Model the fold of this input.
Amino acid sequence: MIDFNQTVEFYPFDGTPLATRLNLQEPPFARRSNCFKQLDYIGSYVSGLNCATVVIERRYIDRDYMEDHSVFYSRNFFPYSNACQRIHFFRVEEARLRKEVMALARLAGKDGDKGKGEYRRACESFGEKYYLGFCVIKPLHGCPVGRSVLKCYPRDAGEYQRLFPCTRNYDVHLFGIRLTISGLAFQQQDAGVSACATTALWSALQRIRSFEEIAGATPAQITMLASRYTLPFGRAMPAEGLSLDQMCQAVQSLGLSPNVYRTDKYEYGRSILYSAAVSGMAPILILRSMDGKSNHAVTVAGIKVKAKHSPSLLPGTKRADAQSGDLLAAYVHDDRNGPYVRASLKEIGGKPQIVIGLKRQDDPSDEPWLLSHILIAMHSKIRLSFGGLEDVAAHAIKRLHGYMQAYMKKQPPVVVFETRVVRAFEYVESLLFSGALTGGNIEMFYKTIPLTRYLGVVRLSADGVGSLDMLVDSTGTIRNLHCLGIVFRGRLRSRSRETVEFMAREYECMPEKGAARLIFLPQ
Amino acid sequence: MTAEKKPTKARAAKSPKQDAAARQEFEKTLGELDKEFKDWTDTIHESERLSEDDFAIRINARR
Done:
């Protein structure tokens, strides 16, 4: 007899372990604490976001698990099901949740097309107000956490801010209601089709897929792509981990370009991590254990930065202040622990150290690792590396300082700099949001500054000068690089215009013939 | 907001002779600044120069 078990159940979030709610039992050869560590972490995470009700879909088909099942678990002697469960988290009591769902269903049937629009807006507002995300539960009780997307921590936190530029929107359907959740998908490794390297790649690719047309890749597919040409550690499955080379192969096979940086110097590691994160590239951190015996991979979903900038001069320099110095920690998807885990950035003997902690504050149980490399999967047309952008920043700061000293006979100011790679429309959007671009000047902006799909942005800010963005062509390489234009933002101070014009001439943005690629914006 | 249409001379320089002197001073200053930034730019270049050993590391931390 066929039993689809298509039930949806409501439960109060009352401290009952999620594993109990989901009827999970650890397999005979496994310990409970090992099997449900990630699930327990998710329980405590949503508890921190004031979860009040859970809704469980007892039968849910998940594309990623279906593929894992197809290539691996369907061939087991044990009859694993191809269906999962899915648990949703809401910060509203059950009675109120049911009432709101009924109200939305009633609204959907009203007023034809006009009603549809109203219904969609009501769904959006309902989701924003109450929905905390979902977690797919695989029928693998030794490693049950499948694709899970949870709401991120709130932005403001007193002396620091939490930013989540490496997230995206996911649409979720429950009772026909479209709920939208902003986050980055997480899942734990199963050591069958995936180890940490595969799941880290899988999470990073989730982000890129939201804006580039690349094929969706499940953990099983990623492991297979990584193992297509080389098997340095023997068979691909059960997964025994990947080499960094294999991770790059998987990225390349999906039509992206793997960018790898060795991060054995603290300030450099910090600057690459910061720039890649604020660029929304979901960088993968390759970590080495302190005894050097094992390596781990985690994906960055967000960062924790100081709310107020404090100076951090580049090593050896007197007046080059890196904005990346405000980076305090990253929020990473660590498949050994859970989503959005705090990974504090520290310095140990001049090297970057990542300390993974599951509690809100530093704790003796925190795990230290050395940040050895950063892998960033990027659009293949972005030829300019993040290191290259740092080089551009240093080049520009030297010219700005040189101008102040040689032409203006003034002591050069401290220049705060930041580098990032952004899609052109996002850059323009940020100018619109800040009020720098308006209906009155947007056309002029488009006439003045040519834009590539991805812009390399070097922002320089200094007292007495103001803030200017140098936009560079990300399709170029450092030997043949071109500055697309310079955007000055803010109030022009006494010598700002001369300085900015000098920079524009230095970078060929004010040619002898033709229009200048320099614009002054009010904010 | 204005878009600059024509190139203008650096206003700090008063004459071509002064301008040339300032340029010379500027180039000299750049040379000094190159030295100041050398450690940083060397770090950037070395960190992107990867070897086979970098790619051979095995990433397999157990849960």
